[in-house]
Amino acid sequence: MNLVNQPAPRFSAPAVIEGEEIINDFSLDQYIGKKNVILFFYPKDFTFVCPTEILAFQEQLAVFESKETAVVGCSTDTEETHLAWLMTPKNKGGIEGVTFPMVADTAKTIATNYGVLGGDYTYDDRNNLVFEGAPICLRGTYLINKEGIVKHVSINDFPLGRNIDEYIRLVDALRYVEKHGEVCPANWEEGKEAMHETRESVANYLGKK
């Protein structure tokens, strides 16, 4: 399922905001026309790789916010489990201090609509509903622009942690493209030269390498 250049699937679900308050109707709609969004999915609360990623996003949260980009996390755990984890100190395996929204996808519909659920429902030979795979989220990350359109998707298997700096680079690239109408070549970073989509522009760019 390819969501790039498609509207991001909409949802309304429970979430913990500001690391301490549960709300029942969190939605990405609040960011339309105002902010880009990094929506990331992770497998489970109270695990090992997941807190390293979540805390890394928190460490860079001010950078994302300075670039008009919200960060939102999501897993299939309950909102109560999210809150318990958020209230657990880091030295005890918690993520205390995280302030961006943490969405609870207990129905697994958000993960399914975004294509990151780690398996599929099916039926066995007795027509009983079963699940093949892992009924939790893969490490999916979505960059959604201010119009609610998905501009980047990456999905990692459970053991493979993300590079948060790459998502900052992608936010920079998206903002540059939307502002200047140019395209960003390989390894582009903020402050580097971009190019127009013409043969002459590509030739000039490569000639300077």
TrEMBL record:
Principal subcellular localisation of the protein: cytoplasm
Active site: 50 (cysteine sulfenic acid (-soh) intermediate)
Domain of life according to the entry: Bacteria
GO cellular component: cytosol
Domain Thioredoxin as annotated: residue spans: 2-176
GO molecular function, a single term: thioredoxin peroxidase activity
GO terms (BP aspect): cell redox homeostasis; cellular response to stress; hydrogen peroxide catabolic process; response to oxidative stress
Keywords: Cytoplasm, Disulfide bond, Oxidoreductase, Peroxidase, Redox-active center
Record's subcellular location: Cytoplasm
This protein's record includes keyword 4Fe-4S: no
Homology family: Belongs to the peroxiredoxin family. AhpC/Prx1 subfamily.
Function: Thiol-specific peroxidase that catalyzes the reduction of hydrogen peroxide and organic hydroperoxides to water and alcohols, respectively. Plays a role in cell protection against oxidative stress by detoxifying peroxides.
Protein name: Thioredoxin peroxidase
Source organism of the structure: Bernardetia litoralis (strain ATCC 23117 / DSM 6794 / NBRC 15988 / NCIMB 1366 / Fx l1 / Sio-4) (Flexibacter litoralis)
